[in-house]
Amino acid sequence: MAAYSVALVGLFPELTDAFLGVGVVGRAIREQRVKCRRFNPRDYATDARKTVDDRPFGGGPGMVMMVEPLRAAVHDARTAVPEGSPVVLLSPQGERFDQRLAEQLARLPGLVMVAARYEGVDERFTASEVDRELSIGDYVISGGELAALVVLDAVARLVPGVLGNPDSTTAESHVDGLLDYPHYTRPEVEGGSRAPAVLLSGDHGSVARWRRREALGRTWQRRPRALLDRELSAVDRQLLENYIRDSRENDTETE
Ligand code: 9WO
């Protein structure tokens, strides 16, 4: 299997080191299922001071990342990834990144991801070099590096062989549009609260039905829109009705 190739373009490559060394992503890199190279626009600055930013035309606070050092870094980054790997700018103005997009990106041979700093990049860089802009959510952070790592993590997990057991992807939040079910471990009673008896029953069918019911119920309570967007099977509808009935009974008991 060819490795999934990622090139990260940004001013603070050392920010990504700890993350790329640990856990599922760290192992994927050690096993060369995912390759990650970094390109620092500062290394491509042409003046003696290594300038990568300048004052915004029109005035105002802060600095803007200049086109040329970024463009030169992206050109080298492109040579490190296969043909057909898009250039992605992490940006609050971008399309919202979600599991569906992660699956779409994981089907490509690789990615170039550009992390901005300061007040952002010159719009002419975006227009000439960037294929798509992605946002991880509507909040202000100081730069694109953390967003690039979020995208890299979500995509790397979907690369074949990265998760040993393919089951463990499908059990998690969002993969089939549902939230995850609740988890419990020892002790059986914690602070007066007992873990659900069904999970200790050893009855795998009942455990699977209970988890499905909880996943449907929590999605209904916390992401009602996500349920409206999908067609439920007869079994799922039954499980959800059962959950809703139970939750209404519990409501009236505490009234
Ligand atoms: C500044 C600002 C000012 C007024 C109103 C909204 C505003 N948003 C921002 C802003 O997010 N500025 C960026 C912060 C400038 C470039 C560096 N920053 C950044 C954020 N890079 N990448 C992100 C980001 C955030 C969420 N998802 C992907 C990338």
Description of the structure:
Helix content is 40%, strand content 15%. The protein has helices at 17-21, 23-30, 67-79, 99-106, 123-129, 145-156, 167-170, 204-222, 224-228, 234-253; strands at residues 4-9, 34-39, 53-54, 64-65, 87-96, 110-114, 132-135, 189-190, 193-194. It has a 5-stranded parallel β-sheet. The longest helix has 20 residues, at 234-253. The chain is elongated, with a radius of gyration of 23 Å. Ligand 9WO binds next to strand 5. Ligand 9WO binds at residues 90-92, 116-117, 119-120, 135-137, 140-141, 143-144, 147.
- The coarse overall form would be elongated
The poorly predicted ranges are none
Largest beta-sheet details: 5 strands, parallel
The chain-level mean pLDDT equals 95
Helix content: 25-40%
